[in-house]
What does this fold into?
Amino acid sequence: MAEAWLIVGLGNPGPRYELTRHNVGQLVVDELAARRGEGFRSHKANARVAETWLRPGGAKLILAKPNTFMNVSGGPVAGLAKFYAVEPEHVVVIHDELDIPFDTIKLKTGGGHGGHNGVRDVAKALDSSEFARVRVGIGRPVGRQDPADWVLDPFGPSERKNLPILLGDAADAVEQLVDEGLLAAQQRHHAPRA
It folds into this structure.
């Protein structure tokens, strides 16, 4: 039987937050589901899930979007990991990252949470930090805007123009991470764009 991977897009629930920078993780999970023609359904772990495959005969993908606010994402993630019997090493968390420029993706496994409360809560709930992270760069605000307000703002016009490319690249990174491992995905997605 093919191994299962839990792919979680972090964000906040509801239309108010749908297209904000903080929800870029959920937008990437939407892209992964759309590529496979899958829709989301409610799950008892307080999340919306779509069960699919990397490709026919490939790894099983459980695409998930917690129904909770970002900072308390851990409960749904741990609940889904338990329900589907997925170890932390097969959990991929996709989230926004202030310290990476917009249009940039970085991947890593383990380590600290870097001040990201959603990642912190997932690590606490899983009792492990040994899950993969696909960090989608949103950059820092220019000027004096509070980063806490910046992440809750919708993407700006120039960002929106490039957002489909960014979401596609991040979805590619997730697929490659599952298929070929972290190093191969890092080598491809950490390289400067040509």
